[in-house]
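Recall the central idea of this unit: under ordinary conditions, the amino acid sequence of a chain determines the structure it adopts. In this exercise we apply that idea directly, starting from the sequence alone.
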Amino acid sequence: MFARIAACAVWLFAWPVCAEIHGATLSIPGVAATEGKTQVAPRQDADIAALSVGTEPAPARRAVSPQTAPAPETAPFGLAAERVSEGEILRKWMRVESEIREDKQILAHCREDASSCPLVAQRFLAIVDEGRARSGRARIGVINRAINLAIMPTSDLEQWGVADRWSAPLETFTTHRGDCEDYAIAKYVALQAAGVAPEDIKLVVVRNTDVGENHAVVAVRTDGAWVILDNRWLALASDRELWRATPLFEIDEEGVRQFMAPTAIPQLRDGAPASF
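Accordingly, the structure predicted from this sequence is:
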């Protein structure tokens, strides 16, 4: 009961907080965001799986034989993307990627010598290990939930005095504050550390067409399909269930790619719950 109350309070508190993600040289409007907070007791796999299906009961699914099972989707939203060779988003990613490598060195040292591991790294690794102890969708759900509840939603302007600043996970866990891309970056690193294959994790920038804001999330491929991790709620949503959201960029170890023809999200359902 207390965990549910905390989750609801987080969602309500996080909703109005926004911060910008700029990509001006690519003629993409500025980016805004919102987020979520506080640590809670771990849940069992069944509870995590329940979170992953959203707030409404999932419709019954017909069994699919191996011969008729759909092929795994290679990219989120089923959209092709082309590499970006310049622009503000690429520059920000290159800078934070360097900081992520430094964080990974610290985390690796902690694995070798826990006695000299910084407290902030211990807190991050505790989330990683909680996820590693599970598999599949439960692993993704527990990491999404733990990071959402570990960070206080705070705009970059309030925290750093600048419109947009991307932070590596240990910096975010040091301040306990961040905006949408800081949550997303922390999940991206934690999922890799927990054993999810790098090719199955993407940072994604989408545009909320309802309010004209951009937002950073994480897309993770599981069982051949992509699910979206958002800092504003605990449930996992299918990439095809985003409502009035236009995917702009996907980011990973290979760099930044811009989605082509992003206005057409295949099989977008008119009745899907709003995600932004």
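The domain at 13-52+77-259 is CATH 3.10.620.30 (C8orf32 fold).
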